[in-house]
Amino acid sequence: MKNPIRKCLAAASLLLAMGAQAEEKPNIVLMVQDNLGWGEVGCYGGGILRGAETPRIDGLASEGMKLLNFNVEAQCVPSRSALMTGRHPIRSGTHSVVWGMLYGMTQWEETMAETLSEQGYTTAMYGKWHLGDTPGRFPTDQGFDEWYGIPNTTDEATYTEGFEYDPEVASPSVVMESKRGETPKTVMTYTREVRGEMDNVLTDKTIEFMERNANKDKPFFAYVPYTLPHVPGMPSEEFEGKTGNGRWADMLSNMDYNVGRVLDSIDDLGIRDNTIVIWLSENGPEEIWPHAGTAGPWRGTYFTPYEGGLRTPCLIRWPGKIEAGSVSNEIVHITDFYPTLAKIAGGDVPQDRIIDGVDQIAHFSGESADSAREGFPIYNGARFYGYKWRNWKVLTLTNETMGDNIMTPGMPRLYHIPTDPKEQYDLVKFGGRDGGERAYWVLPVIFKKIVAHKASLAAEPPIKMGTPDPYVPASN
Description:
This protein is an alpha/beta fold. It contains 11 helices and 15 strands. Strand 5 and strand 6 form a beta hairpin. Helix 6 packs parallel to helix 7. GO terms for molecular function: arylsulfatase activity; metal ion binding.
């Protein structure tokens, strides 16, 4: 159930938006890769070193801002929830990837798509949702005018070929489509063969949507959560064997090609100057061989609290507003895109709940050299792992891999990231003049922030995972 007062205000905003000129509100194209590590593409030190050049993604970096310290959540579901709501997933009951139970965002949550829709945007999503697969929790229930893609995740494409697979107890994954107000319908079974061509199809759909909406009197928002390189990371038939460096490199080349196709379409439609393009990864690299990726100089993969699990590539282009070739090493979090895009669109985030994201437009535009945030809490699932602040990180829980045991150190671990990018030297443990004793002052500073974060969870109790709709907070 949505806030009725907010809906009345939204209706008034929509009337104002409809009377404005389309060029006053930029189009937004948000492309998201699934489990692409920091060190995979050329502009982040990968590319040819990973077996395939990535000229189109690298070119995008030269045309806008490259974020070196963009941070996400440790798992797929929470990252996507954080992106859509601007809230830490621990608040929304979307903190973990789960099976066999009701999951996803309650209808009470306000999404980026809903806010942009209220500001007069035509909205569409093409790709992986992973924020609910039951009536009321599909993309077209949460602010999107149309959707084509998969409700859950890509490893489900392997189910039908699984050892002793039984369709009577494990329904095959499907590709779905829907429009706002309609019940999503199944298009086809999501098999491994379909998986290989999926991102090409998502690109086709995105281009067709932009062609339909580029010259209308209202702006558009295209959310394109691609399925690559999530396991099984495989290229389309057209790219199989293309690089000569194996399937992973073929897939990387395929990925770059599709990003280029979207960028070319924007140019062909003559809307480059009035279109914000954001390209990012929502998780750290895969660790499952032979689909494993790399986080470049950082330690860890997804499902870990290290920089490799939190820090991913992110590029932003907005001609005339964001300086071409600019680079930032300031901390930006995935929750920040919701309030930032809402502000650009002339809207605002909900005022009746805690929003963790912050408006970063001053930093992106170069008006401020500093990010609007200094840090954020670290979670893996429902477990609180620590806090990243400026150049420092405190961890109270650790695990080395997705399947590793979760360890509780006797004392919190403290790392200084610029001098220790692999997070190998715990400064609480390694004392001495040039070690821990020069860093001890950081512990009380960060723990004050941890206490404040946990107090916010007491002030606004989190939604429990599996909470059905309709949901209304007790305080309301």
